[in-house]
Amino acid sequence: MDTMRDDQKEAIPALGFYPHVDISTGTTLIAMEYNGGVVVGTDSRTSAGSFITSRATNKITPITDTMVVCRSGSAADTQCIADIAKYHIEVYTMLENEPLTIYRASQIFRQFLYNYRDSLSASVLVAGWDAKEGGQLYALPIGGFVTRQRSTASGSGSTFVQGFLDSQWRPNLTLNECKAIVKQAVGLAVFRDGSSGGVVRLATIDANGTSMELYRPDKPGFPVVKPPSAHLSFPPHVEQTPV
Amino acid sequence: MSSIGTGYDLAASTFSPDGRIFQIEYAQKAVDNGGTMVALRGKNGVVIAVDKVITSKLYIDDANPRMFNCNDNVGMAIAGVYPDGFALKDYACGEAIKWLKEYREPMSVQKLATSVAEYIHIFTLGISRPFGASAFFSAWDKKKGGRLFLVEPSGLNYEYKAWAVGKHRQAAKAEIEKLKLDQLDVQDLVREAARIIIAIRDENKDKDVQIEMGWVGENTNGKHEVVPDDVLSAAEDWANAKLEEDDMEE
Question: For A21-215, CATH number?
């Protein structure tokens, strides 16, 4: 978030003052439970204002073999929170001599997101599998509110696909059905959202662990979006040739 | 100061030459001399019963309870020196609340028992004297079934099928071993616990006593509760009749 006053935004080289724009993951995060686990999908764009800092970012950060966190908001904040939460989760796993539940992990993330809510710009999805509850998905928007979802989207691209997800989700999806929905949703969001783009990354988490997939726009498998084309005969006095 | 201890019993941080810590053994004696406490784990629940010693007739009914809840699901029963046990109970409740605040889920019985055991160890060694109290922790849930832990003044913490502490623990354990615990449901456990407590009483010495029980199991939907008065008196009546019947047979 840019909190600088307008009059401070001009660069003053003599004073060595160069206003900076926050580097953030204007993002599309999609996640959905299926009958044996959970699938998450993201875009890969990181930007500072209109500049794309990285076009192949991995926003799916592994926490354990069976848990990932999808990050959105300030890239620095979310990377840092993911590292710290991961450290805490590892320590508790050692102390208690058993893997933490995904719920416990989501609560550990909550503590940081809530306690430092005034200084953070971070929102995450915690997704994973545990023996107690199976595949799970927790959404933690900015501020530290936690909900468990069956299907959710977050980040700037989410507004474009929330309806699509609502229309596609149903109980007991198979892995392949779920993957197809998530991938298509990321494709649709990336198509309409200027702050999302790059490649599509999918992660599938089940009892056996996490598997990651990558879909590049120049290779087969990238989600196709075919919007209806505009009327080329408009305005009528300009002659246009169809592409 | 001539026979026992001989200088090695002045602090809990001092070992005797043969590797014992006398202060902790004395603390254990404080539990051993207290009212008998019997804990039983059956097929669908856990029952803890204590023969509470009433030290004055002027106390109100049910004064100085020894059965508590750490949270909705975990029961705690304290044996031995009352204020010491009460302090342990306060600590355990504090831990359970802290857990709930941090993780928004109830603390498990195992984690509570472990944390109290750790606290006892640190407190004994580094802060003050040992606790003259032991604590049973009980819980039941559908997945893991009944669970029963005992934390001792030494900081020792074991999980049991059934156990007894206090004055008549040896006799109580002998009785417990005769039970087919995995076939008994919670109602049976209440009756058997009452029978054991009454059977091992010393008719001459244990006069001003009162049975207090806590239960947790399928019947309480996994919530720990103090056993209601009517259930308790029914169990005592059954126990007395049963003991009389057994006497007749002999």
Answer: 3.60.20.10
In a domain, B4, yes or no: no
Q: Are A180 and A165 in contact (CB under 8 A)?
A: no
Domain spans, chain A: 21-215
For Cα atoms A55, A61, A64, give the angle at the middle one, nearest 5 degrees: 160
Q: Which residues of A touch B103 (CB under 8 A)?
A: 103-104, 107-108
Give the count of domains, chain B: 1
In a domain, B121, yes or no: yes
User: Which residue has tokens 């909190």?
Assistant: A3
Residue B25 maps to a domain: no
The nearest alpha carbon in chain B to A102 belongs to B103
Three-state secondary structure call for residue B176? helix
Which of A42-51, B81-90, B170-179, B184-193 shows the lowest per-residue confidence on average (mean pLDDT)? A42-51
B173-183 burial, b at 16+ Cβ within 10 Å, e below that, comes to bebbeebebee
pLDDT in tens, A181-206: 999 999 999 999 989 999 999 999 99
Q: Provide CB contacts within 8 A for B119, sequence distance 6+.
A: B88, B91
What CATH number should be reported for the domain holding residue B92? 3.60.20.10
Asked if A111 is an interface residue toward chain B (Cβ–Cβ < 8 A), one would say yes
Q: Please answer whether residues B75 and B50 qualify as being in contact, where contact means their C-beta atoms are separated by less than 8 angstroms.
A: no
- Domain around B239: 38-249
B101 touches chain A (CB under 8 A): no
Q: pLDDT tens digits, residue range B178-221?
A: 999 999 999 999 999 999 999 999 888 878 899 999 999 999 99
* 0.90 surpassed by pTM: no
Question: How far apart (Å, rounded) are the C-alpha atoms in residues B148 and B113?
Answer: 9
Let me know if residue B219 belongs to a domain: yes
Cβ–Cβ < 8 Å for A67, A128: yes
Is A25 among the residues known to form the active site?
Answer: no
Look up residue B83 and give its amino acid: P
In angstroms, the Cα distances linking B46 to B116, B160, B192 are 20, 11, 12
Chain B residues near residue A111 by CB distance under 8 angstroms: 102
Q: Are A165 and A139 in contact (CB under 8 A)?
A: no
